[in-house]
Amino acid sequence: MNHYETLYIVNPELDDENLKGVVDKFRDLIEKEKGVIVKLEEWGKQRLAYLVKKFDHGSYVLMDYCGGPGITAELERDLKLDDRILKFQTVKLADDVEPQELVQREEEAKKETAAATEEQAQEVEETAQEEKIESDTSDKEVNNGI
Amino acid sequence: MAYNRGRMTYHRRKVCRFCADSSLVIDYKDSRMLRYFTTERGKIIPRRISGNCAKHQRMLTVAIKRARNIALLPFTTSTIR
After folding, report:
1. With the C-alpha atoms ordered A109, B55, B46, B7, is the resulting torsion angle positive or negative?
2. Would the pTM count as exceeding 0.80?
3. Which residue among A3, A75, A104, B29 is buried most deeply as judged by most CB within 10 Å?
4. Is residue B5 scored above 80 in pLDDT?
């Protein structure tokens, strides 16, 4: 199986429910074509660098998957026909990969980032507390001045 | 950026930042990093200015072109945005 990655832009005017429908549709398509989804990311609404079909914003969706050589042709045809999709791009990341391995690696990476963000959150809290103390003291000084 | 003005010649040894730091990965989805290697008008900064090595400059241009294709980076910003 080959490892592919497709990034597509969905019409920004769709509500959350319809957007989810679009994402699910293409995920199901991959599964129907006997592919394996490695990663599915929604980046949310972002500003486009230039107008695409008269839109200056778009909802980006990143789909990372494994499949046989015919899978991209199938997917891209459907992306082209769907008028909710503004633009898409597929990149082949690797040949002959073991999909289960990639899925496992992805899960491990997810755990790591979750732990890292937790640490960061703690750090932010600590610095916020320190700042609070500092501002308290400065308030006192001002009072003394008056 | 350091330009040579008149007779004043000034050379700074430029090192490819991707060779210097192997943790940096060139990825077309990382538009903020790629923006660093483009001018305000969206042109790719040449190797002689940025100091990248040939291998990484090649990877970078491919990444920038991919990012342009999917509207993460502009082809040009001559139009008002």
Report:
1. positive
2. no
3. A75
4. no
Q: ipTM value, please give it.
A: 0.71
Q: Tokens representing B44?
A: 């790719």
Would you call A88 and B70 a contact, using CB atoms and an 8 Å cutoff?
A: yes
Which chain A residues are closer than 8 Å to B25 by Cβ?
Answer: none
What pLDDT does A145 receive?
A: 46
**Nearest by CB: A87 against B42, B70, B79:** B70
Task: Specify the pLDDT at position A98.
Answer: 81
For Cα atoms A88, A92, A97, give the angle at the middle one, nearest 5 degrees. Answer: 135
Q: Which ranges of chain B does DSSP label H, i.e. alpha helix? A: 17-20, 31-35, 47-50, 54-69
Asked if pLDDT for residue A146 goes beyond 50, the answer is no
Residues of A with CB under 8 A from a CB of B: 7, 9, 48-50, 52, 58, 62, 87-89, 91
Residue A93: other Cβ atoms inside 10 A? 13
